[in-house]
Amino acid sequence: MTILVYLIPVALLLGGLGLSGFLWALRSGQYEDLDGAAERILIDRDERPER
Amino acid sequence: MSCCAPGAETALDLASSISVLPSSQEVRLASRSLGGDLHQSDLSVPTVHCAACIQSIERALGKLDRVEAVRVNLSTKRVAIRWRGNEVPPFVAALGRLGYEAHLFEPETGEKDKTLSELIRAVGVAGFAAGNIMLLSMSVWSGAEGATRDLFHWVSALIAIPALAFAGGIYFRSAWNALRHGRMNMDVPIAVGVSLAYAMSLYETINHGDHAYFDASVSLLFFLLIGRTLDHVMRERARTAVNGLSRLAARGAIVLRDDGTRDYRPVGEIEPGMQLLIAAGERIPVDGKVIRGSSDLDCSLVSGESTPRTVATGETVQAGTHNLTGPLTVEATAAAKDSFLAEMVRLMEAAEGGRAHYRRIADRVSALYAPVVHLTAFLTFLGWMAATGDWHRAVTSAIAVLIITCPCALGLAVPIVQVVAARRLFESGVMVKDGSAMERLAAIDTAVFDKTGTLTLGQPRLVNASSVDPAMLAIAAEMAAHSRHPHSNAIATFAGFASQPKLEAVSEHPGFGIEATARGSTWRLGRRGWAGWKARTGGESRYGGTVLTKDGIIVASFVFKDALRPDARAAIEQLNNARVSVEMLSGDTGAACGEVATTLGIHHFVPALLPSGKVKYIESLAKDGHKVLMVGDGLNDTPALGAAHVSIAPATAADVGRKAADFVFLHESLSAVSLALDVSRKAGQLIRQNIAIAIVYNAIAVPIAILGQVTPLIAAIAMSASSLLVIGNASRLQGFVPDVPRRTAPPDSRSHTGTLTQPS
């Protein structure tokens, strides 16, 4: 059962990573334009103006 | 729009003909400073809808001088532009050249966005906690024992703390708020159930007990938060779409100073006595008196009159009217806060409608539900005490009752149906701004319509085009293209059917018409008395008597009529079939109303009403026990919209009207009203079914809990099963096709599946 001592923290850490990734994505505005994100993959990068 | 397939433009194309591009002063006034000389302007661009649109806008605007960054948001159909310097770069014109019409919109307060991000964050935290605790619980249920089980319980207890504090906080605050005001809402039993489940599980864990309900308390929060978030997202989308509609009220005006200088002032700074320059195409910002110039004013939004009014020096003008043909110099006679618009807002606030006293279905149910549940739990406790005297057993069973009855299904029953219904309406171009609006709409028995702009389009249509000589019609259309007058717009739509002589020296005479020369003769299009100066017919017919003349001799005359909205008659019939009595209130003359009423089969109408008269009429209906739906668009309808039980406004309505209404429909067709009623009634039915399902579930589960036979496993299965049942029942509304004879609506080319609105 000693395996639990590090398996549980590892499991929680991975879950926590996922959660913090989600919160980061939320904070950086990636959920603000879901329709736009879906369409933007059709735009060629080379043609994009320098911004 | 060159880049997109025809038919791809779904909504919002209706108001285009009457909206006015914002001037650069207006854009500057609406921009936000980002520090230094950096500014950000947000424009609403309703017609953007594909990758090519995004690309062409971002590339073209990015090339403009002093523009730092451009970002199109396709979901909200907005473009954010960051620019430097004092002068506004000409991005509105650049957008216009690309074929996109841009306008400013009412800036939102940041508050609502904060709620949404708090909800999404809470869903994230609760989801993380629920997933991990469920994993640990699974191993307990499959046989972990002794020290391992205790360890798992302790870890679960730790994970649950942030979830309860962060995600549960939303419910605790709402429950506390309700209790403090002596009310009861669904959040009260939720908060009690969740916190008691956690407390008992902690006690069990400390005493090495078998059963802990950490998973139940956290996954309950997770499910409920999903429902609440979807509800919020849906309403936010509707609100964004409504906010993105072009603003019809003036934001400011050019003030002419005594020393001859001109500067642009926002409406709030205009004081009585100031002289304002109002160009053709602008709206009058405050009440005033004309001191120079003459023009035609479109008063349809203000008074409900469909025919434009001619004004000349010395006449008074009302705030909110639209200056159509000539420039005016107006002396302000009232500040914005005393003008007609502000008066309407005050009337609306005074006329507090049924909605203020309306209690949501969920709240009414929980007011009955919570006491019953809490009483059952208490009786269970007493029963076990009396039977066994074992207080631990008694407390455990009582709390098990609370956990099993914690209204997961009941908490989802209402919002999930409303999310699906609102989404269904959203796709048909009807925006639902308030969750309770659908509940209120389902209960109506009387529908009151405004005439101008609601039953009709508020814009005249040429009705005798077929009897006019095509060559003359072509010349008239060519001339009419130079004017903003609604009659001209109606004629101009017939352009291009025949070749015509080239027009020279086109000039507009405000209040009279348009004059042009072609091949040496003078053509005039306008009032009979002015254009046909050689004719001796005199007398103007009812719809203005607009004629086309060649050297003063009448060659064609035009008859206009305020066209009915498409499907108006069908929508009224639908309402009648749905046992809703239809009435019409208007500020227009009795003759004009009678004609519309006869065409549409409306038996009861009241003409020539003042705004306060409409409110009084609706209030008297309400006093007789009727639940009234008000459909209206004008400024003069706004108080009535506020007074009614529930209200609907078209997208072309005045700004305050759109803000006051519970529903806003974007398409021209009036079938939106009967569709909204149909969907709302169907939703009401599904909500009642869902509540019945939740109660049946409780009727089965509660006896098991009272007998003390509920284990955490049974609780988890029962809860998820009932929630899934409720969600599945709600999604039946998605395929619901109302029995309205719908015109072929343009297919929605974009898929919405990427958004958060699909319950899973």
From TrEMBL, chain A:
<keyword id="KW-0812">Transmembrane</keyword>
<feature type="transmembrane region" description="Helical">
    <location>
        <begin position="6"/>
        <end position="26"/>
    </location>
</feature>
<protein>
    <submittedName>
        <fullName>Nitrogen fixation protein FixS</fullName>
    </submittedName>
</protein>
<keyword id="KW-0472">Membrane</keyword>
<keyword id="KW-1133">Transmembrane helix</keyword>
<dbReference type="Pfam" id="PF03597">
    <property type="entry name" value="FixS"/>
</dbReference>
<dbReference type="InterPro" id="IPR004714">
    <property type="entry name" value="Cyt_oxidase_maturation_cbb3"/>
</dbReference>
UniProtKB/TrEMBL annotation, chain B:
<keyword id="KW-0067">ATP-binding</keyword>
<feature type="domain" description="HMA">
    <location>
        <begin position="39"/>
        <end position="103"/>
    </location>
</feature>
<feature type="transmembrane region" description="Helical">
    <location>
        <begin position="212"/>
        <end position="230"/>
    </location>
</feature>
<keyword id="KW-1133">Transmembrane helix</keyword>
<dbReference type="InterPro" id="IPR023214">
    <property type="entry name" value="HAD_sf"/>
</dbReference>
<dbReference type="InterPro" id="IPR027256">
    <property type="entry name" value="P-typ_ATPase_IB"/>
</dbReference>
<dbReference type="InterPro" id="IPR036412">
    <property type="entry name" value="HAD-like_sf"/>
</dbReference>
<feature type="transmembrane region" description="Helical">
    <location>
        <begin position="367"/>
        <end position="387"/>
    </location>
</feature>
<keyword id="KW-0479">Metal-binding</keyword>
<feature type="transmembrane region" description="Helical">
    <location>
        <begin position="151"/>
        <end position="172"/>
    </location>
</feature>
<dbReference type="InterPro" id="IPR006121">
    <property type="entry name" value="HMA_dom"/>
</dbReference>
<dbReference type="InterPro" id="IPR059000">
    <property type="entry name" value="ATPase_P-type_domA"/>
</dbReference>
<dbReference type="InterPro" id="IPR001757">
    <property type="entry name" value="P_typ_ATPase"/>
</dbReference>
<dbReference type="InterPro" id="IPR023299">
    <property type="entry name" value="ATPase_P-typ_cyto_dom_N"/>
</dbReference>
<dbReference type="Pfam" id="PF00702">
    <property type="entry name" value="Hydrolase"/>
</dbReference>
<dbReference type="InterPro" id="IPR023298">
    <property type="entry name" value="ATPase_P-typ_TM_dom_sf"/>
</dbReference>
<keyword id="KW-1278">Translocase</keyword>
<keyword id="KW-0597">Phosphoprotein</keyword>
<comment type="similarity">
    <text>Belongs to the cation transport ATPase (P-type) (TC 3.A.3) family. Type IB subfamily.</text>
</comment>
<keyword id="KW-0812">Transmembrane</keyword>
<feature type="region of interest" description="Disordered">
    <location>
        <begin position="738"/>
        <end position="760"/>
    </location>
</feature>
<keyword id="KW-0813">Transport</keyword>
